[in-house]
Amino acid sequence: MSGIKRNPVRRKNTVAVSGYDATQLAGESVDFDVAEATFIRNCKIRNLTGDTITYYRDVLSMLKRMVAVQGVERPIDVTHDTIHDCVLAKREEGVVDATVDKYLRGWRAYFNFMAAEGYVTTNPFDRVEKIKSERRIIETFSKTQLRSLLEAPKKNTFTGYRNYVLMLTFLDTMIRVSEAEGILIPNINWRERKIKVYGKGRKERYVPFQKTLERHLKEYIEIRGYLDHDFLFVNIDNTPMKTRTMQESIQEYGIAAGIKGVRVSPHTFRHTGAKMFVMDEGDPLSLQKILGHATLDMVRTYVSLFASDISTKHDRHSPLENLYVD
Fold first, then answer.
1. Can you give the CATH number for the domain in which 202 is found?
2. Max CA pair span of the chain
3. How far apart are CA 163 and CA 3, in angstroms?
4. How many Å apart are CA 284 and CA 278, to the nearest integer?
5. Global confidence as pTM
């Protein structure tokens, strides 16, 4: 139509058509290493976290090895059957569905990018459904186990008292170990009793804490003293305490306390705190915000898994049974 000015549309400079000679295809179409480098570059442009980029590198390295076993050497040749064979191979290795699903999420993001950029003619994940994982019991500490763990550190030493306060922090705030590693003293709001933490995807949120933890945090900070950085938890040489050290310290206390039948880790403190919150009739929306979950799905899992315990509460708080009780 005359008189109508149209904006030019830039064509993708990629030819990825089935049947073309490989020399006419983009490097990303025929070389897994080139494709990964381009995908990771895009992740960096999108400002994804270092942990997320490491995750993508790991799952893509595994994908390259697994498809090679099937004789697939080019990204453009990966089909939904290729992915299905990878899933079956992992299951035969005894890998649980939740872990397989973790791999699939990374592979799906990669091929979504490849399809959007025109490096593959069809997206194999258009015909790969999400795995329905088996619901597994979430292991938590009993109150007896919690007391044993909290009694394990030698509180008359700096590291012992620090680890004691660290475990109290995990239980009361239900934060992730990576979030504990990043706590800065200026981000503790003493008046409102809440701590600003940085969760997955660099999303910040405030988590509340109560009087008992407040008292111990203040005492620990006084012992910690003034340093040239603001990280809350530090080593004996005053460097920031890292995730691995936190995990190993808590594992050692689990051995010392003779804890059996449950994994002794920071994440188990998180699960235990969530269970106790649900058991004490805390509302799901508040728990979701404290945990930093994007949806209520995990909170619903907590409520569902601990339904038998909630039934005990219902014995005392049944609306019908209490209808005529003043």
1. 1.10.443.10
2. 86
3. 74
4. 8
5. 0.68
